[in-house]
Amino acid sequence: MLKLILQRRTAIVATTAALLGLSTRAQATGVGQPAPDFTLTDVTGKPVRLSDFRGRHVVLEWTNPGCPFVRKHYGAGNMQSTQKDAMDKGVVWLAINSTESASADYLPPRELAAWKAGQKSSPTAILMDADGTVGRAYSARTTPHMYIIDPRGRLIYTGAIDSIPSARPDDIPDAINYVKAALAESLAGKPVSNPSTRPYGCSIKYKSAA
C-alpha cells in the first residue's frame, strides 16, 4: 500500500514538473518575456549569437523559399522593403530557416543564400536551424512568422507580417504591415499597440522528434 502511495506521489510530481516546464517554455516566447538566446550558423558557416545584438532592435523572420506565402511577400518586394526600412533605422534582421534537411523544401546554405540574393534581400544574417531547436524554442509555426525583440532583449511583437492572410500579392497594398507599425512605435519610444497577431503561411517542416 505504501509503495502504491509513493508511486502515485512520484507520478503527480513528475506530471506537475512537466506542466511547469511547458508553462515556462510557453511564457518564454510570450510578448514581454525575454527572448530565448541562441547561437546558429549562418550560410557562410559563421556562428551568430542573438545576445551579441543586445542594445538594438532585432527582427526574426522565419523563412522557406518553397512556401507560396513566402514567395508572395518576396515576389512583390514586400519582405525586402520591410527589411530595408528596418535596417535603415539600425534594426538587426535575422532570417531563420528551420526546414529539416529531409524536406523537399530544404535548401543547403549556399542555395538559400543565392535565392535571397536573387530576391535582392540582404538581411544581417541568414541562419540555418535544420534541427528545429530555435524554431521550437520560439514556438514558430509558419513561414513567414515574424518576431521583434527590443534592445533589452524582450519580445515586443510576434505574429504575421501583415493583416491579410492570403497568398495573393494583390492583397499587400490593402494590408496593415504589422512589422513596420510595431517597429515605428517602439523606435519612437511608444508601446506596441498590436503586439500579438495570428501568423499565417506554410507550416514549418520541422525535423521529427527522435
Indicate the low-confidence ranges by residue numbers: 1-28
Structural class by helix and strand composition: alpha+beta
What's the quaternary structure here? single chain
Question: What percent of residues are in strands?
Answer: 15-25%
- The named CATH superfamily of the largest domain: Glutaredoxin
Helix content: 25-40%
Assign the CATH topology of the largest domain: Glutaredoxin
Largest sheet: 7 strands, mixed
Helix and strand succession? HEEEHHEHEHEEEHE
- The domain tally reads 2
> At the first level of CATH, what is the class of the largest domain?
Alpha Beta
The total count of helices amounts to 6
Q: What's the CATH architecture of the largest domain? A: 3-Layer(aba) Sandwich
Distance between the termini: 37 Å
**Count of β-strands:** 9
**If strands are numbered along the chain, what order do they take across the biggest sheet?**
2-1-5-4-3-7-8
Arithmetic mean pLDDT: 89
Radius of gyration based on Cα positions: 19 Å
Morphology: globular
In a nutshell, what does this entry contain?
33% of the residues lie in helices and 17% in strands.
